[in-house]
Design goal:
By secondary structure, this protein is an alpha/beta fold. The protein is built from 6 helices and 13 strands. Helix 1 (3-17) crosses helix 2. The radius of gyration is 18 Å and the shape is globular. The two termini are 32 Å apart. The structure holds ribulose-5-phosphate (5RP).
Length: 238
C-alpha cells in the first residue's frame, strides 16, 4: 500500500469513528480501513469519549482486534438489531453498488450490513470506479466440495474464475467459515450488479458473492489534495 493510500485510509477511518454514538450496537467491518476504525473506536472507549458501545464483528481479524482493545462484543445471533455498520470496500460504483471480499470476509460482512439500520462504506479514493469488476475480481465463497462445479457454471456465464490461493500456506485460502473463494472476472465488467448478485447466489454450492447491491446508505471517501488528507461524502448518481 502506498503512503498516500495509507493517509486516505487513516482519514476516512477517523471520520468513521465520528459516526458512532454512545449506546449503539455497531457492526465492525474487516480489512485495513476497518481495522484502523476499530483501533480508533477502542481508543475512544478507553478514554471515555464514547460509552456503552457493543460491537458485532465480521471476521476473525475483527474479533481478535476488538477483543485486544477491550471492545465489548456480541454475536449476530445475540443482538436484535444493529444501529450502524461501517465497513470498507474494494470497488464502489456511482450508484453505491459495491464489490467486497478482498479479505474473503464478505459472507459475515453482508450479514451484518443487511441487519444494520444504516450501513456506511468507508474507502480511499482509489476504490471509486465507473463500472464494477473491470479492475477488481469478484469474490465468490463456495463449499470446498463444489468449487470445480461452481467454476464451470461461472464459465458458462462468461466469468473466468480462479481459486484464490493462500500466501505462506500451501493450497487455497480457507475462509472463516471453512470454505474456498473463487475470484471471477466477467468479460467487460459487470453491467447489471443487481441481477448478477442473485444469479450467482442461485448456483448450488455458492455461499455468497461479493456484490453488495442497494445496501450502502452512505459512502465516505478519504482523499489527499495538495498534500492534505480529507474526507468527502460521495453523492449518489441517479
Ligand atoms: C474484506 C473486505 C474489505 O472491506 C475490503 O477488502 C477493503 O479492504 P481495505 O480497507 O483493506 O482496502 O471486503 O472482505
Amino acid at each position: 500500500m502506498s503512503d498516500l493510500q495509507n493517509q486516505m485510509k487513516r482519514a476516512v477511518a477517523e471520520a468513521a469513528v465520528e459516526q458512532f454514538r454512545d449506546g449503539m450496537v455497531v457492526g465492525l467491518g474487516s480489512g485495513s480501513t476497518a481495522a484502523l476504525m476499530i483501533q480508533g473506536l477502542g481508543q475512544r472507549l478507553a478514554s471515555g469519549q464514547l460509552k456503552d458501545i457493543v460491537g458485532v464483528t465480521t471476521s476473525f481479524q475483527g474479533e481478535v482486534l476488538a477483543a485486544e482493545l477491550g471492545i465489548p462484543l456480541l454475536s449476530l445471533n445475540a443482538v436484535d438489531r444493529i444501529d450502524l455498520a461501517i465497513d470498507g470496500a474494494d470497488e464502489v460504483d456511482p450508484s453505491f453498488q459495491l464489490i467486497k471480499g478482498g479479505g474473503a470476509c464478505h459472507v459475515q460482512e453482508k450479514l451484518v450490513a443487511a441487519r444494520a439500520d444504516r450501513f456506511i462504506v468507508v474507502v480511499d479514493s482509489t476504490k471509486l470506479v465507473d463500472r464494477l469488476n473491470l479492475g477488481f475480481l469478484l469474490p465468490v465463497e463456495v463449499l470446498p466440495g463444489a468449487w470445480r462445479q461452481v467454476q464451470q457454471q461461472l464459465t458458462g456465464m462468461d466469468g473466468a474464475a480462479e481459486l484464490r490461493m493462500a500466501q505462506r500456506k500451501a493450497g487455497p485460502v480457507v475462509t472463516d467459515q471453512g470454505n474456498l473463494v473463487l475470484d471471477v472476472r466477467f468479460n467487460g465488467g459487470i453491467a447489471d450488479p443487481v441481477a448478477l448478485e442473485r444469479e450467482i447466489n442461485n448456483i448450488p454450492g455458492v455461499l455468497e458473492n461479493g456484490l453488495f447491491v442497494n445496501i450502502a446508505d452512505d459512502v465516505l471517501v478519504g482523499e489527499v489534495s495538495d498534500g492534505v488528507a480529507g474526507v468527502r461524502s460521495l453523492e449518489k448518481a441517479g
